[in-house]
Design brief:
single chain, alpha+beta, 3-stranded antiparallel β-sheet, 6 strands, 27% strand, globular, binds zinc ion
Length: 183
C-alpha cells in the first residue's frame, strides 16, 4: 500500500514559521512520516520536502539528490543538524513547494556537512553539489526559515503582490510583537 499524500501548506500558514521538534528515529510514526513525505514529494514533483510543510511539527526532511544515479537519490534526514558549511557562497535559482510558481536566486554556501539519525545511529553526509543546497533549504524549514528570508530587501519588494502582502504582514507582526511565542 502506498502512503497517503499530504496537503502542502502554502506561505502565510503559521506552521511554516514554527521551530519543529526533534523526533524519536526508532518510532514507527517517524517511519510513517517519512513515507508520507516521500509520497507527497513524488506527487508534487519537487526535490525536497520538510515535515513543517505538511503541518507536522517534526524535524524530518526528505531530499532527492539529482547528482546521484537513479535509485540512489533518496536521502532521509531525521533530526538533521548542519555541522558546517564550506566553499564560496553561490547564487542558484530555488523554488519551494510552499511557494508555487516562485523561483528566485538565493545565495548560499556551496557545500554543507549535515549530521542526522540514520539506521545505525548518528551519521553525517558531506556534499557540495545540488544536494548541499537542497539540504540547506530544507533544514531551514525546520527552524521556520523560508528561502525568501535570504533575499535582500530590494528583491523582496519585487515579489508578487500577494506574497509581498504576507511579507509586510510578518514585518508588522514582528514590530508589534504579535508574532511572539510562535517560534
Ligand atoms: Zn521549501
Amino acid at each position: 500500500m502506498g502512503a497517503r499524500v499530504a496537503r502542502i501548506r502554502r506561505y502565510g500558514n503559521r506552521c511554516l514559521r514554527r521551530r519543529a521538534r526533534s523526533v524519536d528515529p526508532n518510532d514507527q510514526r517517524t517511519r510513517e512520516l517519512l513515507d508520507i513525505l516521500w509520497a507527497t514529494l513524488r506527487a508534487e514533483g519537487g526535490v525536497g520536502l520538510a515535515a513543517p510543510q505538511i503541518d507536522r511539527d517534526c524535524r524530518v526532511v526528505v531530499v532527492i539528490d539529482p547528482d546521484r544515479p537513479p535509485g540512489k537519490q533518496r536521502i532521509d534526514l531525521v533530526n538533521p543538524v548542519i555541522l558546517e558549511t564550506f566553499g564560496p557562497r553561490v547564487s542558484f535559482e530555488e523554488g519551494c513547494l510552499s511557494f508555487p510558481g516562485l523561483y528566485t536566486h538565493v545565495w548560499r554556501p556551496q557545500g554543507a556537512v549535515v549530521e542526522f539519525d540514520g539506521p545505525t545511529g548518528r551519521q553525517s553526509l558531506r556534499d557540495e553539489g545540488l544536494a548541499a543546497r537542497i539540504i540547506q533549504h530544507e533544514v531551514d524549514h525546520l527552524d521556520g526559515v523560508l528561502f525568501i528570508d535570504h533575499l535582500p530587501v530590494w528583491k523582496k519588494l519585487l515579489l508578487p503582490p500577494r506574497l509581498l502582502m504576507f511579507v509586510m504582514f510578518e514585518v508588522w507582526q514582528k514590530i508589534s510583537g504579535k508574532g511572539k511565542g510562535d517560534r
